Give the backbone structure.
Amino acid sequence: MRRPVGTIHATSDTTLNGEHFSSGAAVVDGDSVRTLSEHFTDILASDGTSFRLLGMSQTQMHDGWAALDYGKASVSTSTQFQVKSKCYAVHPVQKTDSRYSVIPFRERIYISSQQGELLVIARKVHRVKPGTTLVITACGDPKEAVAWAGNDALPKQIFAAAGIGGILAVPRDSISSETPDSANQ
């Protein structure tokens, strides 16, 4: 028997295992949650984590982690809740209050820490400090590259542009190939 891993609170534009459902439904290990419009869905995990699946996204929920099949998500946790995909995994370094976002946009993945330090495992392992964003290009490919965006305003710009299908203009000085630590030395 699969065990419950959370409770879902959603609009009618969300499916649970391909079916429409009532808000407040239980999510069990392995369940698929999909948002069908630009509306988001909140999942309160059994460990107290708040997992927000943003519009036009799909995930498989598990105990302590979510497999993001496609789309965008944001997480608020104190338990090192992980978000994984085919080419990366993200989790807080410590069991303290952490907030982070995972946003694919224009063939890049933006992983931003609003609170708490993150560990990102892709082709290499990276630490993302609060207030910074790791940008992965060609994730999982031998040509995978990373860059850093130094402030947390960037994910808000990406969310806005992605939501309206617009063009994102990022100032060149906002993205660097240096890690935040090496840029400050």
Summary: Residues 161-173 have pLDDT under 50 and may be disordered. DSSP finds two helices and 18 strands in the chain.
